[in-house]
Design a protein that fits this description.
Layout: H1 16-42, H2 46-67, H3 75-87, H4 96-112, H5 120-143
């Protein structure tokens, strides 16, 4: 980095080793959250399932950014980089950042929204959308040498 420059989430700053390690950890977190969402759906705990499904999607998005060397950590940074560096460059569906942003809002409502009512049908439809986008992110990661962790 040149004198006078500063790091931002839009600056790729991680080494190759850090990229792989952190991306693999995020993919594992994504899978764990997704597995939890499936268990919660089976128990008809829909608000909690929607929240966990969001984190499954979020961690997959963050894994992609980390694999590419961006140190975006928080939800807003992830949305910014995902939108500008991937969706804006036609490397993913343009609606992907909006789906993630909607998921973030729903997660907040699930956890903190007193009186916010969700129907099982709505939750299952939303999780299906998350699954579609999460699968796309996981495919992008696989093409970059980061796959799902081995079952065990």
């Amino acid at each position: 980095m040149e004198p006078g420059e500063h790091n931002s989430p839009l600056t790729a700053t991680l080494t190759e080793e850090e990229r792989l390690l952190l991306a693999r950890e995020e993919v594992a977190a994504s899978q764990q959250a997704w597995d939890a969402a499936e268990v919660l759906v089976s128990q008809r705990l829909y608000r909690d399932a929607l929240s966990r499904a969001y984190f499954g999607l979020f961690h997959a998005a963050r894994a992609l950014l980390l694999r590419e060397g961006y140190s975006a950590r928080g939800p807003n940074e992830v949305l910014e980089v995902l939108g500008l560096r991937f969706a804006g460059a036609n490397q993913m569906p343009p609606e992907a950042p909006a789906v993630l942003a909607r998921g973030q809002r729903y997660r907040e409502l699930c956890d903190f929204g007193v009186g916010w009512v969700v129907t099982p049908e709505r939750v299952l439809a939303e999780i299906e959308v998350y699954e579609e986008h999460r699968s796309g992110l996981l495919n992008m990661l696989a093409a970059r040498g980061v796959g799902l962790p081995a079952a065990g």
